[in-house]
Amino acid sequence: MTIAEERSETVAGRVRPRLDGVPETLLWTLWNRACEARLPDTVLDDPMAVRLVEEIDYPFEERLGPPHPLFSQIQGLRSLRFDQAVREYVADHPYATVVALGEGLETGFWRTDNGRMQWLSVDLPEAAALRSRLLPPNPRHHVVACSATDLSWLDRVRDLDNGVIVTAQGLFMYLRPGEVRSVLAACAERLPGGSFVLDSLPRWVTKAARRGRLRIGDLPIPPMHWAMAADERYKLRGVHPAIGEVRALTMPQGRGRVGKLIERQHRIPVFRSISPAVTQVWFR
Predict the structure, then answer these.
(1) Could you tell me which of 143, 52, 53 has the C-alpha nearest to residue 99?
(2) Contact at 8 Å (CB) between 222 and 25?
(3) In 3-state terms, what secondary structure has residue 96?
(4) How far apart are CA 186 and CA 45, in angstroms?
(5) What tens digit of pLDDT does each residue of 39-70 get?
(6) Do 197 and 278 meet the contact criterion of CB atoms below 8 Å apart?
(7) Residues in the chain where the model's pLDDT stays below 50
(8) Is-contact 219 63, C-beta < 8 A?
């Protein structure tokens, strides 16, 4: 048994994870997706998230707070937007490789699988071990236990002819600016014709996290180091000469008044400067 595997145990048939710092935040995103997926009019069809919450021995509500209608729908719509980007790319490249960096217990492979694509999940060893233990095996789904900043994962991407799309959902804000540039530059260099989908937070959020002012229930949000507002996307073109188009991805239509606000936040300048942003980069 590896050290990472020892950081989870089975109690009464349920898996008890032993996570802290950034890896523990994967349980918060899972909790939000599951809470959203339970709703009859959910924006995200994710029954696996519901099942995972039931199989994990973790005090979700006590530690993270009760279901929050805003956070749950935002998380559901963010995951849906990443799914849409993957589906759009795979529609043109049906045998593509999807590389999901730091995806925790995301279930995007099962939500978007076309039966032909390959999926590479790259995460820290403790998160990768938990993912391997809880999610069903599939010959086209592979887990790589290393940091996204350890660029050796790129050596596992062997089929460039059929296209590659990389996703970094809820990851880059925890990396330092130089690390973000290094990951993007390496992908631009080694994945010609590929694409990269990422999300970012404005500086006021990351600054508050670094000062220890952000908490979700009893969970302190770890320090965040990289920020990018929606109107700063153009700067990504300067990371590497092989970066071509940089495109803003707007959120899908949500549910009720909250959903409309989330969908329209990037159309209103005052909200655009304080809201999360989802961006797609294309490599020449």
Answers:
(1) 143
(2) yes
(3) coil
(4) 34
(5) 999 999 999 999 999 999 999 999 999 998 88
(6) yes
(7) 1-6
(8) yes
pLDDT digits (tens, 9 = 90+) for 216-251: 999 999 999 999 988 899 999 999 999 999 999 988
DSSP helix/strand/coil, 270: helix
CA of 244: how far to CAs of 11, 279, 281, in Å?
A: 50, 13, 7
Integer Cα distance of 270 and 191 in angstroms: 36
User: Rounded CA gap, 263 and 275, in Å?
Assistant: 11
Q: Are 225 and 175 in contact (CB under 8 A)?
A: yes
Alpha carbon distance 142, 56 (integer Å): 22
Cβ–Cβ under 8 Å, residues 77 and 252: yes
How far is Cα 234 from Cα 120, in angstroms, rounded to an integer? 28
Residue 264 neighbours by CB under 8 Å, 6+ apart: 271
In the structure encoding, which two tokens stand for residue 51, read together? 């099942």
Neighbour order of strands in the sheet with 141-145: 141-145, 118-123, 97-101, 164-168, 195-200, 277-283, 243-249
* Amino acid in position 62: E
The tokens for 62 are: 């006590």
Dihedrals φ, ψ of 27, to 5°? -75, -30
* pLDDT attached to residue 3: 43
Of the candidates 210, 207, 205, 206, the residue with the CA atom closest to the CA atom of residue 223: 210
Instruction: Return phi, psi of residue 185, to 5°.
Output: -65, -40
How far, rounded to the nearest angstrom, does the alpha carbon of residue 104 sit from its chain's CA centroid? 8
Q: Which residue has the tokens 């590479």?
A: 120
Residues pairing with 220 in the sheet:
215
